[in-house]
Amino acid sequence: MQRLIDAVEYGADFFVEEIHLRAIVFDNSDDVTLWATTVYDGDTYFFHLGLPFGQLDILLRHAGPRAGELQEEVADALAHAPRPCLLEYTNAEVEPIGLPGIALKLSFTYPADEDEFLSEDEEEDFSEERAAADNVFYLEGIYRRLDA
């Protein structure tokens, strides 16, 4: 699957629609990370999305008939699961969570330059990890389509 970061102009303001949540990741920070896919220019792209917990609840309310079940699952994980916690929605038993009629405005995150002076060997070791980190966006806004 292609990375969304490779399809959009770096630093541009943009929206995505046809979003499917594939996983929700909780860690010890104040934010949550979603693993998601979207259709952009006719192709499916994968991306990571950072957002505050309050916005996660808003997104889950738009998950159609699965909304209540998902909100309970997230609340249970927050109350009882050790951190980090991964709630995955991409196996044979569970379909990804569709968000019909929703558009998200995303912004780019900018990686830290702490590894600016890595040696060539270190550069190779961290390149795959860095590539994943470069495909992270932050949620600027949630919009509901009027025709949905």
Descriptive overview:
The chain has 148 residues and is an alpha+beta fold. It has one domain: Beta Barrel (OB fold (Dihydrolipoamide Acetyltransferase, E2P)), CATH 2.40.50. It is 25% helix and 36% strand. Strands 1, 2, 3, 4, 5, 6, 7, 8 and 9 form a nine-stranded mixed beta sheet that branches. The mean pLDDT is 84.
Comma- or semicolon-separated keywords:
single chain, 148 residues, alpha+beta, OB fold (Dihydrolipoamide Acetyltransferase, E2P), nine-stranded mixed β-sheet, 3 helices, 9 strands, globular
Secondary structure: elements and pairs:
Layout lengths: L1 E2 L10 E3 L3 E7 L4 E10 L2 E10 H9 L5 H14 L4 E4 L8 E2 L3 E7 L11 H14 L2 E9 L4
Parallel strand pairs: 1-5, 5-9
Antiparallel strand pairs: 2-8, 3-4, 3-6, 3-7, 4-5, 8-9
- Portion of residues in beta strands equals 35-45%
Number of strands: 9
Structural class: alpha+beta
Q: How much is the radius of gyration in Å?
A: 16 Å
